[in-house]
Task: inverse folding
């Protein structure tokens, strides 16, 4: 088989500049719509079985988060299921990936992809539970449905909890997290989940940005909008995903919100809280601390020593989801960040941070929600 490189599939992103031989492959990442952001890559190499591949991503130094390449290792898969890390180096300008595939086809990605076919299967599986009401809130700019799962029943004392993920489509670990979260929440044999759903109605949007996911974007939707900067004034014309979700939030109210993300540069799992919002209070600080302490106890991959640091009082960007929701509803709202690299406090040389660990953190997050559920009102 002759050497071939392509990304003509769901979530694919690369431009091949030249490939005269497996050890001389020149590539560049294609920017998101709008041209401001790029870092996500996902592509396929065919015809290099048993040969040393050297793949140079030549515009890596101009990516949105160039510090994200330091100590980073790319993911590679020959079966689409197992995504171990492979040898990767960054010289300040070029990202160089080295790998010898065993078979004729190998895929490389910034992080293990979460394809829309798997998303559809996640929604279909959740709908089988009698606890779930599945809705399509509306359509995106590319005409894709925006899926919502409503879990549990509404009672006068129910806390209304919202969990959303993948506003930034390249942060595919967020939807792997969603798999674990939903798997445990919908397990009829899980006592903690059962107790939680006696107290809460949970709204889940596993993928806030299906257009960007399909297009292979890092941060934006089809209009080039960073959804996590659109919460102050969303519109159906540019940010229908945020508009539709925020409109339903206004009807349901919000007692708790967790927005699940990935961070390119920091090799840790951490929470970014709403400390800088105008209405931040000691009571809200206690809820935030309790949630984090419970997650530390539930999962050793999570930690509180490293993160963004607290925003100074009154300086929060209220166009960001967690800040906007916390200020609008007077509730605990947070951003959960997971690494694209390895978790430095608990490294895994073969896999780095991975789908399996994201999935497990999703399951563990029920422990943290259960720890604060009685304090939310």
Result:
């Amino acid at each position: 088989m002759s050497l071939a490189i392509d990304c003509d599939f769901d979530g694919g992103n690369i431009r091949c500049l030249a490939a005269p031989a497996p050890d001389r492959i020149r590539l560049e990442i294609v920017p998101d719509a709008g041209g401001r952001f790029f870092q996500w890559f996902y592509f396929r190499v065919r015809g290099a079985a048993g040969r040393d591949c050297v793949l140079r991503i030549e515009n890596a130094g101009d990516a949105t988060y160039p510090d994200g390449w330091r100590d980073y290792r790319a993911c590679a898969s020959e079966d689409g299921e197992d995504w171990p890390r492979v040898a990767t180096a960054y010289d300040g300008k070029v990202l160089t990936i080295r790998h010898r595939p065993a078979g004729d086809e190998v895929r490389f990605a910034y992080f293990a992809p979460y394809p829309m076919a798997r998303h559809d299967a996640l929604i279909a599986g959740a709908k089988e539970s009698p606890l779930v009401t599945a809705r399509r809130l509306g359509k995106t700019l590319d005409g894709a449905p925006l899926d919502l799962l409503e879990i549990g029943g509404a009672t006068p004392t129910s806390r209304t909890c919202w969990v959303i993920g993948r506003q930034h489509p390249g942060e595919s670990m967020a939807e792997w997290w969603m798999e674990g979260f939903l798997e445990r929440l919908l397990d009829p044999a899980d006592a903690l989940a059962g107790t939680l759903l006696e107290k809460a109605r949970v709204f889940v949007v596993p993928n806030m940005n299906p257009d960007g996911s399909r297009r292979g974007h890092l941060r934006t939707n089809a209009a080039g909008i960073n959804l996590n900067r659109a919460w102050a004034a969303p519109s159906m014309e540019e940010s229908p995903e945020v508009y539709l979700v925020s409109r339903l939030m206004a009807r349901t109210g919000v007692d708790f919100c967790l927005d699940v993300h990935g961070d390119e540069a920091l090799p840790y799992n951490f929470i970014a809280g709403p400390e800088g919002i105008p209405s931040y209070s000691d009571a809200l600080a206690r809820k935030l601390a309790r949630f984090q302490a419970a997650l530390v106890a539930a999962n050793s991959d999570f930690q509180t020593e490293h993160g963004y640091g607290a925003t100074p009082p009154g300086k929060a960007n209220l166009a960001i989801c967690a800040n906007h929701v916390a200020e609008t509803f007077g509730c605990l709202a947070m951003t959960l960040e997971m690494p694209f690299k390895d978790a430095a406090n608990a490294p895994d040389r073969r896999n780095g941070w991975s789908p399996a660990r994201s999935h497990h953190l999703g399951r563990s997050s029920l422990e943290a929600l259960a720890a604060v559920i009685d304090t939310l009102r």
Remarks:
- Residues 355-372 form the longest helix (18 residues).
